[in-house]
């Protein structure tokens, strides 16, 4: 569907920053966190578009942000990945501009001085923080003891993403530039299953873009998706937990990487760099050059998984996209514009009269 008067989302607002936007996260209600590649974090109020708090001078690109609810506060705490370190900040503070010395906790889980953190993830109990790294390693921090556990198997190239699996208290899944998805029991540090993204049909015997796994998303019901460097969307339906009135025996492990339940879809030419679920089966993706598309993941009459495209549009100002977040009413992307300035684009869902 082209963007027009019947489009479900319309461009609403842009916000500019001195440095490229590298990560985004929604906080409480109308709060948006934006990390930049100059080591800065900004917290925006989306009702006024003003900056409420900021962290500066972290010494590297803010590659990932995860929020933690603080009781009786409208401000979320945040964990940030920046270089080799992860920082925990309390945002409910009278200090408007903070630095690394204001962090509640600072972790340095990587041994190699050349290694850097990529994505952070927090489990539903808020007891464990997972991380992925350029070295291909995947690890988990027990936040009660600050004990760090590294998975026994690592990716052969950069590990871009890591996610905890909903309703599976000891399982997580990671994706890397080695084209592999790994599924772990993080308590045992062992691999439960794995899958390699197949190569696309080549032209003249040559594949122009390897299927690096650039981004992943997992829904509350266990649907899993991965975006590749060659513009394909991989979807796994095998781990989906379906509602049922009849009692059902719990499976031994999540089966989200089951080959018989996969769907692989060519979305665009060029890398898919960011994605997120807004509902348990509605997935929004963005390409590097700003093509936005939304899909409904569902099963057909024969029970096979499929993806129905709901909407597609092009970014208005963003030249290259680094991050995307979604909620019930908004799609927000971040990156940089044609002048090299950091940019945040906010798209809002329209209420279309029936």
TrEMBL record:
| Signal peptide segment | none
PANTHER family reported in the protein's UniProt record: WD REPEAT-CONTAINING PROTEIN 53 (PTHR44666)
Indicate what this protein is called per its UniProt record: WD40 repeat-like protein
Enumerate the InterPro entries for this protein.
WD40/YVTN_repeat-like_dom_sf (IPR015943), WD40_repeat_dom_sf (IPR036322), WD40_rpt (IPR001680), WDR53 (IPR042453)
């Amino acid at each position: 569907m082209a963007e027009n008067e019947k489009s479900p989302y319309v461009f609403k607002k842009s916000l500019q920053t001195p440095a490229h936007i590298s990560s985004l996260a929604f906080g409480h209600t109308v709060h948006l966190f934006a990390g930049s590649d100059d080591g800065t974090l900004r917290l925006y109020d989306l009702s006024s578009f003003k900056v409420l708090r900021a962290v500066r001078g972290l010494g590297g690109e803010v590659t990932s942000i995860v929020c933690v609810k603080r009781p009786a506060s409208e401000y979320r705490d945040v964990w940030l990945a920046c270089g080799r370190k992860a920082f925990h900040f309390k945002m409910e503070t009278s200090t408007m501009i903070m630095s690394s010395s204001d962090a509640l906790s600072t972790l340095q889980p990587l041994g190699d001085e050349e290694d850097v953190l990529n994505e952070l993830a927090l489990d539903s109990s808020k007891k464990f923080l997972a991380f992925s790294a350029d070295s291909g390693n995947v690890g988990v921090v027990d936040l009660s003891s600050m004990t760090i556990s590294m998975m026994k198997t690592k990716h052969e190239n950069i590990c871009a993403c890591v996610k905890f699996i909903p309703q599976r208290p000891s399982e997580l899944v990671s994706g890397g530039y080695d084209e592999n998805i790994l599924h772990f029991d993080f308590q045992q540090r062992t691999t439960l299953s794995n899958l390699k993204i197949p190569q696309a049909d080549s032209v003249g015997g040559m594949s122009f873009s390897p299927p690096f796994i650039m981004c992943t998303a997992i829904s509350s019901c266990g649907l899993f998706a991965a975006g590749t460097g060659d513009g394909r969307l991989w979807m796994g339906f095998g781990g989906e937990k379906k509602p049922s009135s009849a009692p059902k025996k719990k499976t031994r492990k999540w089966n989200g990487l089951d080959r018989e339940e996969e769907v692989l879809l060519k979305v665009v030419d060029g890398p898919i760099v960011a994605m997120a679920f807004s509902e348990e089966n509605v997935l929004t993706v963005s390409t590097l050059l700003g093509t936005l598309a939304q899909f409904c993941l569902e099963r057909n009459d024969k029970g096979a998984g499929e993806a129905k495209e709901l909407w597609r549009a092009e970014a208005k100002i963003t030249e290259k996209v680094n991050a995307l977040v979604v909620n019930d009413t908004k799609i927000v992307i971040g990156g940089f514009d044609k002048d090299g300035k950091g940019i945040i684009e906010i798209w809002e869902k329209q209420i279309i009269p029936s």
